[in-house]
Task: structure prediction
Amino acid sequence: MKEGGFAGLHALAATRRTFIKTLAFAAVAAHGGSSVAFASYPDLPARLRFLTPMTHAIISAFAHRILPPGGAFPEGALSIDVVQYFDAVIAAEPYEIQQDIKRALILLEFGPYLQLKFRRFTRMAPAQKDAYLTTWEQSDTTLQRGIFSVFKKICCLGFFSSEKIFSHIGYDGPWT
Result:
């Protein structure tokens, strides 16, 4: 065998973006590949710069499961407008990052199809969403853990930067 015979394998290596695109395409194809796959997302509640009705529904469902109302905090992610914070953070990012986030949201939404669970993330029951998110949080795949971590960190930053939460954590607010 010639030296360097495996050089062609390097050309076949998938990049992170190619991997996300392929999985997103496979999920959409499994769901029917038409506009029906994206149907029935509610209209946007506010004027947002990055999120679409679909991606808004996905990050809302994620944030609600990560930061639900009750327990230590009476307010949850949705009453704090964490999703609007998420939108503002991502809208300030370069176009390439925005596209990666959009693909990651689609992967989160249609990922259950890749596990042969034929229901979108936003259509799952609360217990199913929690179990699904746990698989992402504890995944052997760096990509899934990374997506989960980024989404969780942005949502938590939005949650704890709200004045509604300050009194619950003993914070008097920023100095003026």
The chain has one domain: 14-166.
